[in-house]
Structures are given as C-alpha cells and as structure tokens.
Amino acid sequence: MPYSALQTALEQLPQALQQDGLWSHNAPTAAALASQVPFAADTLSIEQWLQFVLLPRLSQLLQQGLPLPQFRKGQGMSGMLELQWQQRGIKAPATLQLVAAIDRILEVE
Length: 109
Fold this sequence. Notes:
Elements: H1 3-19, H2 30-33, H3 46-64, E1 71-72, H4 78-88, H5 93-106, E2 107-108
Parallel strand pairs: 1-2
Helix pairs in contact: 1-3, 1-5, 4-5
C-alpha cells in the first residue's frame, strides 16, 4: 500500500474541505464523536466525519505504523459522500476527488 500517497492525500484533505466550503471551525462535542453508528451519521454531517474522525484516525494509524482499513473495489467512501451531498444539494468536487483517491489507495482486489 502506498503510504506516502495516503499521507499526501490526508495532508490535502483540509484544503479540499476549505475549498469546497465544508470546513468546520467548531469541533463537535465528545458525545457526538463517540457515536457508534457508521460514519457517526446520527451525530455528524459527513463532512464533519471526514474532518474530525477520518482524518485524525488515518493520520494516527500512519504515524504509528498500524494496519490501515481496506475496502473492496467500489466499496469506499466516495460513493456515499456523493449520494449524501447530492441529497443536500452540495457540490464538493475537490473533496470528492480527493476522497475517491483515498478510496483507491485503500482498495484491495
């Protein structure tokens, strides 16, 4: 797995969220972050989940040299993002493109 490519993508994620107007300056509560629902869908928007859950967790795994999550081809995060944002009328091309790249990095055959 190309760890350097994932590190680069994670470093670019804040800029993509900002470019698309999805960056949050206020962190969610600890209770919101403790959600047990996939993607914390009951307490966070998907863009908050990217910023406050995915980014720190993947960064921590990389820094500690721990195993990274893996997806089967077509089972990554970008499809869900696209669907949620379409339903909400959000256009976020920079973030969507970057998350699709992260999906490809984490894909397994």
